[in-house]
């Protein structure tokens, strides 16, 4: 029999599709199952208005059959079926399908108008099959038809025998090649896992006869295999159920199983939206960061479903990077599908959903912070740094979203506080939000300036992550209060009287301080201060760049000698006995004074968490003192 040719544009599309559109060959099964499910929907819909159609809701099913010997895989349904004309027009022209029309003005023989999308789901089966046979009978009709094709060179349509209504699609699976093991699609376990992965929430049962094994009757250790029909999909998606009817255990089990976590999530977030875009989202905040979370291997994203059919495993566009830790699924019936199941990125609806999802996550995190503080702190320990990077990145574009979600350790009782809590507790006289940087809270507590702040009763935020100080710089101000590093020179807490007398002292010892500065060679100034309490010396920075920031920048890849340096001053406690020692040495032994200056600078650096440039020199200087 003469083969009918696919319309030319179909042929090209077919080639193109087989070779390039779908990255994963395995999705062909999802496409066939989705079509079958649509066909069941159509018949069911007809049954609602047409009393001729007598089929019970529970009779609908999709069946899968594999025959390894014959190398065939069959997907069948008892849905609406296709007439001869439908077989020709639906399968004979790729573009002419369901939701989209491929417009061509044939009479004029021109103007091929391919607008964006066309249904080619069915044809994806040619990625794994070298021959496809479709047998179909419309419900209520007597005659069935068979459509058959071996790919781009054409197809035939003939009458055939088919005792039941519906559609049966038989694929002859390609022979294995060196690169592709097509035989995997003849393995029961593979089919089962593909159904689970892509089609678990199809509303109709997807059945397959599988081989199982059991103990032989009357035998202790002999087994026999038998065949049994199994429903492979779980059918009802958890996220479609009303949240109040689902138990916490069910949500937790769903999470741990789906996202391979050994711990239940810290919190579960559900969202049902019926605005511009209708969708259900079920999301989770994990209890701990996955092992690869802070590496470039981690891929963020939510699973995206279209009416229960998986479209994308990690849709990154649905989650901003700073909420990248959230796992979950989003299901919408509004997404435009067809070919672009793989090419959704530019979908406008996706943008609308992403915005609403971000808002929801923020809301839930705020709620957690206010009502379940302990849990929130656990969350923050795992993912807080991500939020802080979120503030810092994109030039602070997202700071308003995130600023109230971040916490810092504080000098008061060494517990976490938010910026709101900090500013709410500020007294009228306190002008700034104070912070200090260091490797750990313990190291920060050693800072001489901290002692001074504590003595004055001011609360200080402890910044222990590299990104912290940069984050605060991006935030700029909170509740109209500026941030102030307690090691910055501008922060002089001394009383007016004390300031006045220190000023005089600095003037009187100008030459001595200059000599010390020259000896050290790395500071912009050496001066007396009245801010310190018991500590003899400290380093303080001038201007925007602090010692801590300098340290972080110098660790960055590519930072060499060119990395920016903080401008630092060595401050000497004017009420500490060391002041008098230094002044006396200026009169009696200037060489010794220079050595002392170096020692004091080195120890002040260490206290600030900066390593000493020349530890050997320090060692010599200190030993000299002991001889
Ligand atoms: P799409 O599903 O995206 O419209 P397909 O190429 O997958 O595109 O299918 C083309 C058309 O063929 C469908 O729109 C449908 O009308 C018809 N069709 C495919 N499979 C079946 C089936 N199992 N039963 C009935 N009709 C089907």
Tally of helical segments: 18
Please outline the major beta sheet: 8 strands, mixed
Determine the CATH topology of the largest domain. Answer: Heat Shock Protein 90
The multimeric state of the shown protein is: single chain
* Number of strand elements: 24
Percent strand equals 15-25%
The span between the termini is: 111 Å
Structural class, please? Answer: alpha+beta
Helix content, binned percent: 25-40%
Q: How many distinct folded domains?
A: 4
CATH architecture descriptor of the largest domain: 2-Layer Sandwich
Q: Can you walk through the features of this model?
A:
The protein is of the alpha+beta class. The protein has four domains: 10-231, Heat Shock Protein 90, CATH 3.30.565; 238-374, Ribosomal Protein S5, domain 2; 406-485, 3-Layer(aba) Sandwich (Rossmann fold), CATH 3.40.50.11260; 496-626, Up-down Bundle (Four Helix Bundle (Hemerythrin (Met), subunit A)). The chain contains 18 helices and 24 strands. The strands form five sheets. The protein has an eight-stranded mixed sheet with strand order 7-6-5-8-2-1-9-10, covered by helices on one side. Strands 17-16-19-18-21-20 form a six-stranded mixed sheet, with helices on both faces. A five-stranded mixed sheet has the order 11-12-15-13-14, with helices on both faces. Helix 6 (348-371) packs across helix 7. It is elongated. Residues 95-118 have low confidence and may be disordered. Residues 31, 35-36, 39, 77, 79-80, 82, 90, 97-99, 119-123, 167, 338 line the site of adenosine-5'-diphosphate.
């Amino acid at each position: 029999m003469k083969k009918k040719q696919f319309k030319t544009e179909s042929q090209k599309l077919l080639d193109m599709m087989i070779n390039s559109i779908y990255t994963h060959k395995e999705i062909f099964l999802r496409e066939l199952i989705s079509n079958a499910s649509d066909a069941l929907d159509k018949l069911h819909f007809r049954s609602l208005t047409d009393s001729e159609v007598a089929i019970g809701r529970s009779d609908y099913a999709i069946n899968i059959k594999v025959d390894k010997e014959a190398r065939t895989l069959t997907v069948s349904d008892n849905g609406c079926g296709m007439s001869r004309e439908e077989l020709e027009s639906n399968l004979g022209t790729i573009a002419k399908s369901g939701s989209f029309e491929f417009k061509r003005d044939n009479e004029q023989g021109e103007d091929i108008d391919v607008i964006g999308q066309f249904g080619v789901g069915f044809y994806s089966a040619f990625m794994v099959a070298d021959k496809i046979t479709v047998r179909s009978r419309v419900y209520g009709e007597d005659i069935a038809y068979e459509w058959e094709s071996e790919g781009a060179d054409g197809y035939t349509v003939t009458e055939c025998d088919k005792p039941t209504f519906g559609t049966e699609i038989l694929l002859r699976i390609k022979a294995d090649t060196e690169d592709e093991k097509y035989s995997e699609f003849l393995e029961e376990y593979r089919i089962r896992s593909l159904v689970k992965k892509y089609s678990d929430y199809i509303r109709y049962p997807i059945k397959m006869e599988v081989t199982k094994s059991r103990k032989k009757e009357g035998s202790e250790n002999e087994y026999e295999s038998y065949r049994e029909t199994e429903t492979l999909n779980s059918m009802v998606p958890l996220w479609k159920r009303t949240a109040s009817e689902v138990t916490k255990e069910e949500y937790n089990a769903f999470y741990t199983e789906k996202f391979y976590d050994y711990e239940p999530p810290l919190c579960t977030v559900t969202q049902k939206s019926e605005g511009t875009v209708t969708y259900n989202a079920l999301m989770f905040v994990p209890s701990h960061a996955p092992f690869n979370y802070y590496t470039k291997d981690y891929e963020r994203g939510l699973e995206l479903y279209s009416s229960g059919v998986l479209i994308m495993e990690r849709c990154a566009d649905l989650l901003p990077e700073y909420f990248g830790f959230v796992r979950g699924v989003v299901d919408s019936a509004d997404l435009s599908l067809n070919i672009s199941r793989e090419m959704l990125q530019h979908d406008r609806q996706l943008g609308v959903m992403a915005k609403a999802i971000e808002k929801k996550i923020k809301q839930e995190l705020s709620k957690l912070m206010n009502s379940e503080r302990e849990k929130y702190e656990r969350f923050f320990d795992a993912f807080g740094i991500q939020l802080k990077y979120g503030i810092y990145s994109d030039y602070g574009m997202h700071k308003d979203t995130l600023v109230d979600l971040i916490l810092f350790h504080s000098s008061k009782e060494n517990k976490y506080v938010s910026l709101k809590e900090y500013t709410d507790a500020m007294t009228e006289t306190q002008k700034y939000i104070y912070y200090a940087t260091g490797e750990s809270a313990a190291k920060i507590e050693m800072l001489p300036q901290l002692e001074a702040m504590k003595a004055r009763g001011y609360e200080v935020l402890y910044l222990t992550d590299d990104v912290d100080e940069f984050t605060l710089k991006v935030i700029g101000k909170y509740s109209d209060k500026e941030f102030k590093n307690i090691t910055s020179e501008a922060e002089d807490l001394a009383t007016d009287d004390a300031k006045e007398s220190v000023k005089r002292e600095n003037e009187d010892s100008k030459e001595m301080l200059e000599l010390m500065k020259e000896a050290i060679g790395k500071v912009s100034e050496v001066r007396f201060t009245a801010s310190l309490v018991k500590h003899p010396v400290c380093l303080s920075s001038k201007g925007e760049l602090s010692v801590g920031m300098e340290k972080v920048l110098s660790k960055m890849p590519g930072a060499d000698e060119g990395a920016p340096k903080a401008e630092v001053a060595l401050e000497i406690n004017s009420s500490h006995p060391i002041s008098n020692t230094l002044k006396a040495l200026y009169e009696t032994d200037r060489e010794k004074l220079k050595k002392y200056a170096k020692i004091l600078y080195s120890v002040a650096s260490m206290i600030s968490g900066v390593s000493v440039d020349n530890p050997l020199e320090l060692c010599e200087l200190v030993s000299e003192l002991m001889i």
